[in-house]
Amino acid sequence: MDKIKIDDNGRLYPMPMTVVGATVKGQPNYLAVAWVCRVNATPPMLGVALGKGHHTNKGIREHKEFSVNVPGTDLIKAVDYVGLVSGEKVDKSKVFESFYGQLKHAPMIRRCPLTMECKVINTVDLPADEFFIGEIVGVYTEERYLTDGKPDIRKMKPFTLTMPDNGYWGMGELLGTAWAIGKDFKP
User: Fold this and answer.
1) Exposure letters 160-181 (e unless 16+ CB within 10 A, then b)
2) For a Cys-Cys bond, which of 17, 58, 90, 107 suits 21, CB 3.0-4.6 Å?
3) What is the pLDDT of residue 66?
């Protein structure tokens, strides 16, 4: 079949749903974010793209710290809520119970199965967004989300976002092991 052009605005399918946390005006602020990715192996770094108008950006720029929290499906409504309302107009500090690791201005969400605190290494100014690159300085979870000492996606129950349909999706079945399943492939 022939490929047809459908759009100029391509998106990845799916995108991991996260909540970015920062201290803004002395209190925790949270924002639902799907534009997040790993950008470096050693030292470990994450990148998050946030629209320039977001309230959260102010705290990240001021303190050079942020958190990336991976919520489970049990938090889907609260996650959607912190993406719908602005911290400029609504106090989001009580939506989640916060805790802190090494960094004083990277609030993390206690109920999220996996949380990471990051210190800003670089900020890339894009036409509509700011791309914050942060070095991960701490990763936190609970024993109940681990199998053999490693985070277990089946126990964490993260969810993803698809655009432009704006759908939240749960995770599916394990299909194979990366860097192993293709060893028998013959082109």
Assistant:
1) bbeeeeeeeeeeeeeeeeeeee
2) 107
3) 98
Task: Please state, in angstroms and rounded to a whole number, the distance separating the CA atoms of residues 92 and 85.
Answer: 8
User: Which residues make Cβ contacts (< 8 Å) with residue 64, sequence separation at least 6?
Assistant: 119, 120
How far apart, in whole angstroms, are the C-alpha atoms of residue 120 and residue 66?
Answer: 8
Q: How many CB atoms within 10 Å of residue 159?
A: 21
Residue in the block written with tokens 């201290």: 23
Q: How far apart are CA 141 and CA 109, in angstroms?
A: 10
Helix (H) or strand (E) holding 150: strand 150-151
Give the pLDDT of residue 5.
87
Edge-to-edge strands, sheet with 129-140: 27-33, 18-24, 65-70, 114-125, 129-140, 45-51, 36-40
Mean pLDDT in each 10-residue stretch from start to end of the chain (187 residues)? 87 92 97 97 98 97 98 97 95 97 98 98 98 98 97 96 93 91 93
Task: Calculate the CA dihedral of residues 117, 120, 125, 129 and round it to 10 degrees.
Answer: 10
